[in-house]
Amino acid sequence: MERFFLNPDQIVEGAVTFPEDLSKQIRKVLRLDPKKDAVIVLDNSGWEYLVQLDGTVANLVTGHIVDKQPGRDGPAIQLHLAYSLSRREKIEWIVQKGTELGISNFYPYISSRSLVQDLKTNRARQDRLEAIAREACEQSLRAKLPTLMQVSSYEEMLKHTCTHDVKLIAWEGTAIVQRIGPNVLEPLMGSSNRSVVLLIGPEGGFSAEEVNLAEKYGFQQISFGNSILRMETACLAGSAILRNLGDSLMR
Fold first, then answer.
1. Share of residues in the chain with pLDDT > 70 (%)
2. Which of 34, 29, 31, 70 has its CA nearest to residue 49?
3. pTM of the full structure
4. SS3 for 66?
5. Cα(147)–Cα(186) distance, rounded to whole angstroms?
6. Residue 176 pLDDT class (50, 70, 90 cuts)
7. 137: closest CA among 81, 98, 107?
8. What CA–CA distances, in Å, run from 156 to 151, 166, 183, 197, 243?
9. Which domains does the chain have, with CATH numbers?
10. Are 205 and 173 in contact (CB under 8 A)?
């Protein structure tokens, strides 16, 4: 059954009104019958609503809620990803696949070797990333959307993420690095939040000074093995490993 995230103000006393873009998708792309079919609607609260479509009003599809149930459980840990700003296609890939993997928050940042060095917010690009995340949530049956933070400087990102229970930075610059494994998540055993942030460097890697700064904010170095991964590969591989470790340890 098709799934759609809506804003809470589009669900009023059990009546549902789909915005113009989703109404067009329902009628023209998915070719659902706006008077007969049913869909799942989510409002980012963790609930799923079964909605019977009633027809159209001024080209907007309407419906009413006939049932609700809790959405599927998310990962056993709250997984956050900090990544260097890069080319558009790489960032979109990270957001799409990272959302499917269950990442809760994305923290884009700019460091000394980031390919893109622009801190200004591009509203059109942010809207596109939010749409990509929403569609990935719908596809992967997530009940809550991730948060896409604004781009920040490297140290500002460290300040924003330093309160998480476990803070990991992947770096290839030294051989004395702990291989990622279940033991890195041991501090979560007594935590109620169970929050983990994974910090991945830019295409050119971190400088030694940036790694030292991260360690001052409580980050510990980890390794994914002997291979040097591309930035976008490291983001997704590391997130998948941590999610699997978290699900195995916490459930």
1. 98
2. 70
3. 0.91
4. strand
5. 26
6. low
7. 98
8. 10, 18, 28, 14, 25
9. 3-70 (2.40.240.20), 78-250 (3.40.1280.10)
10. yes
State how far the Cα of 47 lies from the Cα of 69, in Å rounded to an integer. 6
Token couple for 60: 């907007």
| Number of other CB atoms surrounding residue 31 within 10 Å | 9
Distance between CA atoms of residues 155 and 61, nearest Å: 46
Q: What is the pLDDT of residues 214-246, one digit of tens each?
A: 999 999 999 888 888 999 999 999 999 999 999
pLDDT in tens, 182-197: 888 888 887 778 999 9
Q: Which long-range contacts link 209-213 to residues 24+ away (Cβ below 8 Å)?
A: 210/111, 210/112, 210/154, 211/169, 211/171, 211/173, 213/154, 213/155, 213/158
pLDDT tens digits, residue range 114-142?
A: 988 888 878 899 999 999 999 999 999 99
**How far is the C-alpha of 177 from the C-alpha of 99, rounded, in Å?**
28
Instruction: Tell how strand 47-57 and strand 38-42 pair up.
Output: antiparallel
